[in-house]
Amino acid sequence: MTVNGESLAELIRRHAPLALSKRLAIVEQVCAALTYAHKAGVVHGGIILYYLISYRMPFSGPPIEAMIKVIRDAVPPLSDVAPGADPELERIVLRMLERDPARRYQDVAAVGEELSAVRHRLE
Question: In this model, does residue 16 exceed pLDDT 70?
Fold first, then answer.
């Protein structure tokens, strides 16, 4: 799963060998992006589930642009990017991606139980 834009592997292929200072700058950018994501309350499991259902990341663009969107924008509803997505599944995903930690699931087991119920209903 990647964010739209050049991947790290592509960057290395195009510019190898990279100077140590450039490699460290990349790691600094990754650290900054993860810090912003964590402060914004991004929950990685929710992103994975969103991607598995829609085949799209909730936020796209070059890495820094995507991180700004994470902080600034609401998560696009699954029904907008995956027409026909089950409404209960959409509710679960959006709750997993809540910015406010108090509104997110507090227990991964609860997520599993709700996903299991949706899966059984859809089978």
Answer: yes
> Cβ(69)–Cβ(61) under 8 Å?
yes
Q: CA-CA distance, 116 to 3, in Å (whole number)? A: 28
Residue 105: how many CA atoms within 13 Å on its side-chain side?
20
Which helix (H) or strand (E) element contains residue 19? none
Residues 6+ apart with CB under 8 A from 78: 50, 53, 54, 85, 89, 90, 93, 94
Instruction: Please state the domain extents for the chain.
Output: 8-122
Closest CA to 51 of 9, 85, 87: 85
- Angle at CA 40, nearest 5°, toward 116 and 34? 90
Residues 8-122, CATH architecture? Orthogonal Bundle (1.10)
What tens digit of pLDDT does each residue of 99-108 get?
Answer: 888 898 887 7
User: Phi first, then psi: what are they for 67, rounded to 5°?
Assistant: -65, -35
